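Protein modeling request. Please complete all fields; requests missing the sequence field cannot be processed.
Requester role: graduate student
Desired output: 3D structure, token encoding
Chains: 1
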Amino acid sequence: MPIDAAKALAAEPRTGEITWDRRDVQLYHLGIGAGVPATDPDELRYTLESRLHVLPSFATVAGSGSPGVISGLSMPGVEVDLARVLHGGQRLELHRSIPVTGRATATGRIAAVYDKGKAAVLVMRTEVADADGPLWTNDAQIFVRGEGGWGGDRGPSARLDPPAGEPDKVVERAVREDQALLYRLSGDYNPLHADPEFAKLAGFDRPILHGLCTYGITLKAVVDTLLDGDVGRVRRYATRFAGVVFPGETLRIRMWRGEGAVRVAVSAVERDDAPALADTIVEHS
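Delivered output (285 residues):
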């Protein structure tokens, strides 16, 4: 069996040092569409070094994204075809604000392996801390098609009850034709997002946008629209990747205010609001 759940769960964590600086932060922000309009004071907080703050979803790529989703596929007990892999979901918990420059230790391990019948789901957990203590915890749900069916634990359901009523805010964000090419410079070089031939092997007629790019675009929209542009208010951010986004499309981002949380749904406008992110929640102070 390509996935040996017991072996994967028992494997020693992988620990490594990661570093980042303002250039990495600026590149990530540009990769999720920041800087439009280029001279907007609100956008300059994402692009200009003298005003820079860090959107929390930068945690998914800090240190070039390693340990991360791809590294999880090389853990003991895991041997899968990359063309069968999709990013199923992401959960981020912030322990404190991310500094513009940093040096930290990242510890990655397989925290869970679930049998969904026709697929397996690996939960790759990365915990990051610097000299002052914990910074963030990332859980990436890695969906591997065709690797389920061994009778293992199905795991918890990621589905939430739909938000009630009409959304409090709806915004649209255009995805550039070259968005995936720019975003991948932050460390996720999966050819699914750049190589048309590889995309066809994976069942798509053209390269798709990184799910974590949509994830970042969405968090920025929530922070800018409902959290007064204050990145420090974000505490947790979780989503399920419900469908693909193609570069050049437009994202429709619906937001529902709640007590200490914003519920979000994201769809692709040009494909009759085809779902992109579902069961999405941003918890905040």
